[in-house]
Amino acid sequence: MSAHYQRLMKLLEKWPVDKRKTGRDLGEHLRNQLKAVINPTDVTTKVSDNLQKQTESLERLANNVYANKYKRSLTSTATGLTAEQCSQVLSSEFLAYLNDERGFFSKDNEPHKPVLLDKAIEFLEPKPGKVFIDMTFGAGGHSKQLLRAGKGIKVFALDRDPVAHEYAQKLSDEFPGRIIPLLGRFSELPQLLKEQNVKKDTIDGILFDFGCSSMQFDEPDRGFSVSHNGPLDMRMDKGRCKDQVTAADVLARAEEHELIRILRIYGEEKQAKKIARAIVDARAALHKIETTQQLANLVASCLSDTQRVDKLQRPAHSATKTFQALRIFVNNELNEINYGMTLAHRYLKRKGRLVTITFHSLEDTIVKRHINGNVIEGLANPVPLKYSSHDLSYDSDLVESLMDSPWKQLNKHVITPEEGEIAINPRSRSAKLRAAVKVK
Ligand SMILES: C[S@@+](CC[C@H](N)C(=O)[O-])C[C@H]1O[C@@H](n2cnc3c(N)ncnc32)[C@H](O)[C@@H]1O
């Protein structure tokens, strides 16, 4: 066990439990979080600078170094610490970091932990002889579980990322003839399935687990992560599609008004104007923005007055939304999702099952509109039909016939991960699962 890790565990052990704050005590919370992500007996040797920094920061807190600077008072947070101390310790980057570090600490060393695994498989109802498409293979967590559910189950494993495709190829050695790796985007699926002689209306179940994999987030060279420094790339396809621009290309070439739209629409970033201006100013001063750290620092410096929290009220990096916006734009993610949903309907047989796992509202809204039948000319419609045009009034029969969905949703409310899953896999925290059956 490494010395740093031992020190960290000791500090947490001696962290005083505040009896008045049952269930809200920071030390207890941290110990639980750590226990969930790290199994102390599995620790080997390597520990990065990041863990060392975190250990030191915990040490300062435990030794009450900030006692004079940040007096514990009625205005302290519910944990008895100041907001600043809390955000230092409980930052989502730190929790994500601990989770990333599982590679060092755990034996199973999964490259990506599948989200809502059991629920997703339950809805897909795998049975011997059934055929599935895993539209987002990643590291194959969901596909493996499907294959294990019965002999003769077959999975077409699609992913646009060559790294994921390699994983699928390896898995096909383990399940010969039962997993068919396909390299491409949703929009390339018709051609790929044609080559496999797969026809419309023939598939039993289709799964989408949208977003990025941990292999993409955790590899600094892919440029997806706000907390790992690397080139600002963000292409899920790596170099597979020669004319695809990188995030750095977008920052270097887009006009200010285009940047504002990208940040506002794809990042839902309220401070889009400020950030776009800072990017354009940096360009004018010949400061190239080519690394994730340069972008993260630039955004943090122009939004320095705001301490951000994520949707679960946890401290988040101020550049998180900017990163999300660029990633969605570079990979044309929303159009892909929209078309992917159309294809799911095309290839599923009647009574075939669809399961989707989304990670933010932009993804979920497109899925929801498809399932509700709110699609006009192949596009998920952003506005309820009856309000879609001020000078057009649809009569209720027409609205009903247009909204007559070819899907029936199986779960009344979206399914979200339980606390235990979130503690083990913080990346699951914003996941929403929908399951539907094709009714026509
Ligand atoms: C969240 S991961 C899936 C993880 C997987 N379910 C597992 O358990 O390992 C999402 C994957 O979808 C892939 N992906 C995203 N958009 C895609 C698209 N339009 N076409 C094909 N693959 C896509 C990404 O490359 C990534 O590997």
UniProtKB/TrEMBL annotation:
The molecular function terms in GO held by this entry are:
rRNA (cytosine-N4-)-methyltransferase activity
Q: Which CDD domains match?
A: AdoMet_MTases (cd02440)
Signal peptide stretch: none
InterPro entries on file: RsmH (IPR002903), SAM-dep_MeTrfase_MraW_recog (IPR023397), SAM-dependent_MTases_sf (IPR029063)
* Assigned keywords, A-Z: Methyltransferase, S-adenosyl-L-methionine, Transferase
Some GO term, biological process aspect, for this entry: which one? Answer: rRNA base methylation
Protein family membership:
Belongs to the methyltransferase superfamily. RsmH family.
What protein name does the entry list? Uncharacterized protein
